[in-house]
Design brief:
Largest sheet: 11 strands, mixed
Structural class: alpha+beta
Shape: globular
Strand content: 35-45%
Number of strands: 17
Distance between the termini: 38 Å
Radius of gyration: 20 Å
C-alpha cells in the first residue's frame, strides 16, 4: 500500500504518473480491481483530483518491487536511465528526484537523460532544443516498406483533447514540419526491424509517421494494426530509444539501451505462443 496527498488539481492518471512509477505500471489493473481509493472511497475511473485529496494505492509487495529502470550512466551532473515500458517519464523523474530534459512515451522503453542540477538541466535542454543530440530508435513494424530506407518529411497536427496526432504530406493548419529517417535492418514473417533516426522530436512522431506510410509499430494501440497486434499478443509498442549521443562539457557521450526489441512469436489459436 502506498499513500499520497494531492497538492495541485490533476486527473488521477496524471497524478499517478507524476508520483508513483509502480502505480503507472499497474494503473488500469488497479482501477479494474477497485484498488485505488480517493479519500477512502474506491474509484474505477480516471477522476479529477483537487488539492488535499488523499490517494491510496493497494499495490501488492510484488507490484511495489517492480523496477522502473536500470542504470546506463550515473555521472556527477547527469543520469541516464534505461526506462522500462509502462513507466511514464514524469513518474521516473519523481522517483529519481531529478529533472527530465526530454521525454519518452509511457510504453516506449530505452535511454532517457535526467539532470541532477539546474545548470546541467539548462545545458541539456538547450542541446535537445537545438537538435544537437543524435536520437536513434529501434522498432518492430509491419513490413509494408516500399524502400529499405527513407528520409521522410511531413507535417504533424496534434489534437490535445484526444491525445492523438495526425500526419499530412502537405502543409495544413496547425501542422508542424517533421523529419523521420528510417532504415530496415531485418525482415521476418511480414515484420521488419527498423532503425529510426529522429530529427524532430514531436509527440508520437515515430509511431504516427510509420503508421502514415503503412508500416505501423507492432503493439501500438493508438496508431497500430489491431489484427496484427492480436496475432502476436502485443499490447505495448515495440519501440526503444536505442541510442542518445551528445557532447557535454567537452566530452562526447553515447548512451546505448539494452532493451532492444526482437521479433515476437505469433500466438496460436488457443492463445499460446508458438515455440
Amino acid at each position: 500500500m502506498k499513500k499520497f496527498t494531492v497538492t495541485t488539481p490533476a486527473r488521477l492518471r496524471d497524478f499517478t504518473d507524476a508520483v508513483y512509477p509502480q502505480g503507472s505500471f499497474y494503473f488500469s489493473a488497479l482501477l479494474r480491481a477497485g484498488d485505488i481509493r480517493v479519500n477512502g472511497v474506491k474509484t474505477r475511473s480516471d477522476m479529477p483530483l483537487k488539492g488535499g485529496d488523499e490517494v491510496v494505492y493497494y499495490t501488492t509487495p510484488k507490484m511495489e518491487s517492480k523496477p522502473s529502470h536500470s542504470t546506463i550512466y550515473a555521472g556527477q551532473h547527469i543520469y541516464v536511465a534505461d526506462k522500462f515500458s509502462g513507466v511514464s517519464t514524469e513518474a521516473l523523474a519523481c522517483e529519481l528526484g531529478m529533472t527530465a530534459v526530454h521525454r519518452l512515451d509511457r510504453n516506449t522503453c530505452g535511454a532517457i537523460v535526467f539532470a541532477k542540477d539546474e545548470d546541467a538541466a539548462e545545458q541539456l535542454k538547450a542541446l535537445f532544443k537545438e537538435r544537437a543530440v543524435r536520437k536513434e530508435y529501434i522498432c518492430i513494424c509491419k513490413d509494408n516498406f516500399a524502400r529499405p530506407s527513407g528520409d521522410l518529411r511531413a507535417y504533424l497536427i496534434k489534437d490535445e483533447k484526444k491525445g492523438l496526432v495526425t500526419i499530412t504530406d502537405s502543409p495544413s493548419k496547425g501542422g508542424v514540419p517533421i523529419r523521420t529517417e528510417y532504415e530496415v535492418e531485418e525482415r521476418r514473417g511480414g515484420l521488419a526491424k527498423v532503425k529510426v533516426i529522429l530529427h524532430t522530436g514531436k509527440t508520437h512522431q515515430i509511431r504516427a509517421h510509420m503508421a502514415h506510410i503503412g508500416c505501423p509499430v507492432l503493439g501500438d494501440e493508438k496508431y497500430g494494426d489491431e489484427a496484427l497486434n492480436a496475432k502476436y499478443g502485443v499490447r505495448r509498442q515495440l519501440l526503444c530509444s536505442a541510442l542518445l549521443a551528445l557532447d557535454l562539457d567537452g566530452r562526447s557521450f553515447a548512451f546505448h539501451s539494452s532493451l532492444i526489441p526482437d521479433f515476437p512469436q505469433p500466438r496460436s489459436q488457443n492463445g499460446c505462443k508458438f515455440s
